[in-house]
Specification:
The complex is a heterodimer. Chain A is α+β, with helices and mostly antiparallel strands. In chain A, about 35% of the residues lie in helices and about 25% in strands. Chain A is built from nine helices and eleven strands. Chain A has a five-stranded antiparallel β-sheet with strand order 1-11-10-6-7. Chain A has a five-stranded antiparallel β-sheet with strand order 2-3-4-5-9, with helices on one face. Chain B has four helices and 22 strands. In chain B, the strands form four sheets. A six-stranded antiparallel β-sheet of chain B has the order 2-1-11-10-7-8, with no helix packed on it. A six-stranded antiparallel β-sheet of chain B has the order 14-13-22-21-18-19, with no helix packed on it. In chain B, strands 4-3-5-6-9 form a five-stranded mixed β-sheet, with no helix packed on it. In chain B, strand 7 and strand 8 form a beta hairpin. The longest helix of chain B has 4 residues. Classes of the chains: A alpha+beta, B mainly beta. Chains A and B meet through helix 4, strand 8, helix 7 and helix 8 of A and strand 12, strand 16 and strand 17 of B.
């Protein structure tokens, strides 16, 4: 199955109930199975600028590079898959763009952004993230967070200093330990995950998961997975009903079929003629 | 403003201590940040580690131990109004800075660039570092720590102990109108399951047959809503076909879905 048929993608973003403008940015390209979400930070409109640069650099650079290449190809030098390489390199490229924009324009000084991105190919997904925007996966009835926040609170949880339940009471939420555009270079966290038919993936900014319990996110995705626009609207509505203190962005990806890369020269030739 | 401890004995306040260092110690010896000259207090009795706006209390293997809110404790994640007891002395933990925060500033995501130790010398001077901000608008009630045995963690609440007394909601869930507190029910009126009742206890309840016709009932602060999810046919409410929009349900509305009629009502 072609990736455009195998994946159903829907995204929605909302400023929330408190903020006057939306500093989140989202972009989806169903032809390349690419989804990108960023949550910007910085004074005035610098947050929007940072998240906008991040999303557009990652999306345009990756789709450009994949026009004449397959993400499953191996890079000759490193031996890494092109999909993994592209995601890592372009998050770093976005980092450099934001960093230099912030250096050269005083009104953008100190701007930065989180990012979470997924590239689907060959029945897998490469996920990359920096900061506290999350990627969840609903498989069957089980919702899992498959990214680990780069935040002070997550470090405290990992260190056994504070329990997950107590983390809700912490007054140190929203302190990220890694962000795009703050320093000259950044190390994105990249993982490859197997994808199964029926999986639903959720990328979101912390405006969702700070406001809505994982339990309610799970119930919504499970009950409404056949209607992604409704599921996205419901998630945003729940965040707003609970206070909507931050911008809320969600990208939903539902896997309706397999999308293996054609193998062998004959399959590739066949695939070429199909395009 | 920094969190603080108010030291008192027999109801008389002795002194206030702002928690303006990353680590402060409590003990009998004079070098402690909070020195209590009493033989029931160990030389170094306890320590309080403060990381930005959160403070953690730890017993330093003291001879007589300490209690938090009446419960013997080794380690504890301090919450506003917690009462620490060491012998006859009481230390009240006050961390109400959230209410004094500039509203425009709260909840903003900020970056910590340096290692924690360098960035967070004190909770009291967030402005100096430039990388910190106030977070979270609500004042959390002090969670009750009812169980005792120590783990490696600083527990503010125990999963087993807390829920009955004070269910810990996400901070934001507070502004909920009456509608959500009222128990609502859907009773099936026709078909083989006629008479059956379904309590709407979850925020989200689906009705119908997957693949054929499904609607969802959502619980919101202003009441319950019904929305069409899938299927060619849309549900009817009081004989009117729904649109793609969510429709608010009133007491005793009749829903028709997949050929089955049911009544929505609030339990008295």
């Amino acid at each position: 199955m072609k990736i455009t048929e195998a994946l159903e993608i829907f995204s929605q973003t909302h400023p929330g109930m408190v903020r006057s403008h939306n500093e989140d940015s989202v972009e989806c390209d169903s032809a390349y199975g690419l989804v990108v979400l960023a949550d910007g930070m910085g004074g005035y409109n610098a947050g929007e600028v940072a998240s906008g640069i991040a999303v557009s650099v990652v999306a345009t650079e990756i789709t450009q590079s994949l026009q004449n290449a397959s993400p499953a190809d191996r890079d000759e030098e490193s031996g890494e898959e092109l999909g993994v390489l592209l995601l890592r390199d372009n998050i770093r490229k976005a980092n450099a763009s934001i960093y230099f924009a912030a250096q050269s324009q005083p009104q953008y000084a100190g701007m930065g952004t989180t990012i979470v991105a997924g590239l689907f190919y060959d029945n897998r997904m490469v996920a990359g993230h920096v900061g506290d925007s999350r990627l969840y996966r609903l498989r069957g009835e089980v919702l899992e967070t498959i990214t680990r926040d780069h935040s002070l609170l997550q470090e405290q949880i990992d260190g056994g200093m504070i329990s997950v339940a107590d983390a809700r009471l912490s007054k140190n939420k929203n302190l990220v330990t890694r962000a795009v555009g703050i320093d000259p270079d950044v190390e994105p966290e990249i993982h490859v995950h197997d994808v199964l038919v029926g999986d639903v993936y959720l990328l979101c900014s912390d405006g969702l998961n700070d406001m809505v319990e994982d339990e309610d996110i799970q119930a919504t995705l499970y009950a409404l997975q056949r209607n992604l626009p409704l599921a996205a609207g419901q998630l945003i509505q729940m965040a707003n009903d609970n206070g909507g203190r931050d911008n809320i962005s969600v990208i939903l990806v539902k896997v309706n079929g397999t999308f293996a890369e054609p193998r062998g020269w004959l399959a590739k030739l066949f695939d070429l003629f199909q395009k | 403003m920094a969190a603080k401890l108010i030291l008192s004995m027999d109801g008389a306040v002795i002194k206030e201590y702002p928690l303006n260092k990353e680590r402060m110690t409590i003990g009998r010896k004079p070098h402690n940040d909070i020195a209590i000259d009493n033989l029931a207090v160990s030389g170094e009795h306890a320590a309080i580690v403060t990381i930005l706006h959160d403070s953690f209390l730890e017993d330093l293997d003291s001879t007589n131990g300490l209690e938090v809110n009446g419960v013997p404790t080794k380690k504890h994640f301090l919450q506003n109004n917690d009462l620490i007891e060491i012998g006859k002395y009481k230390l009240k933990y006050i961390n109400d800075q959230i209410s004094q925060t500039d509203a425009a500033d709260f909840e903003k995501t900020m970056v910590m660039r340096a290692p924690v130790k360098q960035v967070a010398p004190s909770a009291g001077k967030p402005a100096e570092t430039g990388a910190l901000s106030q977070t979270q608008a609500s004042t959390n009630k002090p969670a009750q720590a009812e169980t005792v045995e120590s783990t490696g963690r600083f527990d503010a609440q125990r999963p087993a102990a807390a829920p009955a007394a004070q269910p810990v909601k996400p901070a934001a869930a507070a502004p909920q109108a009456d509608a959500t507190q009222r128990l609502a029910v859907v009773q099936i009126l026709t078909g083989p399951n006629a008479g059956k009742e379904l309590d709407l206890v979850k925020n989200l309840t689906t009705l119908g047959k997957p693949g054929f016709q499904v609607a969802v009932l959502t619980r919101r602060p202003q009441g319950f809503f019904i929305t069409h999810v899938e299927g060619d046919h849309f549900p009817l409410v009081n004989g009117e076909t729904l649109t793609n929009q969510a429709h608010q349900l009133n007491d005793h509305d009749v829903i028709e879905l997949a050929g089955v009629k049911m009544e929505f009502y609030y339990k008295k």
